[in-house]
Design a protein that fits this description.
single chain; mainly alpha; two-stranded antiparallel sheet; elongated
Length: 102
């Protein structure tokens, strides 16, 4: 099973907006593409993460559990990305990865 951070952001947007259309607006993405991605995530996990109904979607128990863990992980990844954006990177052609003390 492979889940990417962008998948977790997608799940969070769907849960927050209560619909794929709202998530698409929030993420600036195509609703059809998000629907396909959500289906791929559900296949990858083997779980139904959202119940679809005529008013939108609601997270299942499995979806709520995954979202709870995503809420812990997303800020950590954002912090990691912010730190690495501020850190000078060694020239990979002159410095070996093991010699970097960053």
């Amino acid at each position: 099973m492979e889940i990417e951070i962008s998948d977790l952001r997608l799940l969070r947007a769907v849960a927050e907006t209560g619909s794929l259309a709202g998530a698409a607006r929030e993420l600036g993405a195509n609703q059809g593409n998000l629907s396909h991605r959500l289906q791929r995530i559900e296949r990858a996990t083997g779980l139904v993460l959202f119940r679809r109904h005529h008013h939108g979607v609601t997270p299942t128990a499995a979806g709520r559990l995954l979202l709870h863990e995503a809420d812990a992980l997303i800020p950590l990844v954002d912090q990691l990305l912010a730190v690495t954006a501020r850190t000078p990177h060694p020239d990979p052609y002159t410095t070996s990865p093991t010699s970097y003390e960053g």
